Amino acid sequence: MEAQGKAGVFGPAATKEKRAFGWRDKVGYLCGDLGNDLFFGFIMYYLMVYFTDSLYINPAAVGVLFLVARLWDAFADVTWGRFIDTRKTGKNGKFKPWIFRMSFPLVITGILLFTKIPGMSNGFYMAWAFVTYILWGTLYSTVNIPYGSMASVISNNPNDRTSLSSWRTLGSSIAFLLLGAVGPVVLFTNNEVNSSHFFMAAIVLAILALACYISCYKLSTERVVLQEQTEKTNLLKTLKGVSKNKPFLVLILAALVLLVVSMLQGAVTTYLFKAYFGNMDALSFIYTSQSVLAICAIPLVTPLAKKFGKKEMAGVSTIVGGLIYTALYFIPNVSLTTFIVISSIGFFGLCFFQTAIWAFVTDCIDYHELVTGLREDGSIYSIYSFIRKVGQAVAGGLGGFALSVIGYDATNKVQSASTLHGIYSLNTLVMGIGYMAVGAIILFLYPLNKKRTIKLTEDIVAKREA
Length: 466
Hints:
With about 475 residues, the chain is mainly alpha-helical. The protein has helices spanning about 25-55, 60-85, 95-115, 120-155, 160-185, 195-220, 235-245, 245-275, 280-310, 310-330, 335-370, 375-405, 415-425, 430-445, 450-465, and strands at about 190, 190-195.
């Protein structure tokens, strides 16, 4: 039955002359996040230590930079999401063209971010860090917002969307596997930052990322076409609709806490292996093992979600992961091997929510349409991305401030005992409490359990056909 020309519903013959959803879409969507995370992961893992140990910027100043940049990016996300929602769908889709157009300046800026001009003053390096990092983050929004929004128009089938979420996570895991396995070996010489190696790595990653974005553009198909909104909306009206969307409000709360904890972990883990354990080769090993575990979790997510529900699976597994990290703090005199084994088990518990989270987002977009009658994929995804950037801002600020508070000094060859204890606490107890909080939010506050998610899909279909 053809849908009527109402705001926020599917247009007639929306999938006419479009090939069926299949492997090309999955691989194409994988390539998109692989491209994203080649640089995002590079920055998450290594940018702070590059700033502190190569440019010799004070950790507290780096924290301020991360806080300011991510807050700026958060507003850039919403602005760009609103812009995307006002664009008409062209012959190549609504979202794909922007991924292709903006990927070129994005990767060029990524190279500039890791370019160190020799012999300049500390003030110059500080200014260079601020300008290039903020510019990179702004351009990242112009690619990531259309990429994330595109999932809802590749298919309107919930199982297809869960599959896309899994393939997206696989792309991310491949990027982090590459960065974790090779990064510590290539980027550091005698346990110290090698600036020229960072620059060469940025060039290689830029070329790979650009190839991934082009593959995403070529392989993915936007087959779900929406009727143009007959009713013009504004941000205030969208936010009013969001205020009625309890699943989305709970999800962004969980995502905010998750991003704060995981980004903080990404920032301080390098210091744990560099200063506490004094073994950067082991950092490569743990990053590799975590990426492999994330990949191993991917094929388990869809069957577990079908059997127990996404909410139930994600909530329980995240709490278990948090408990394991917390227990690690209380084990005395932990050896490097013991730390790697136990923390990897805890990390595995976290992989299920991180894999399924994008399917949660598409459910929330559907719920927004159900309660408001408006289909605002770009705006809703950009609001979600806004919250993620706030989480990244807080985490980046906390990482720098925490290192400063515990007394980390990059000019010291050996850190004090209290500093080393602080580094270890950040990587265990703080992580554990944070992840348990995320699991509890999902398990006890998120309203879309398995039964209600199935009912939501049925209600959306009925409303579109009415």
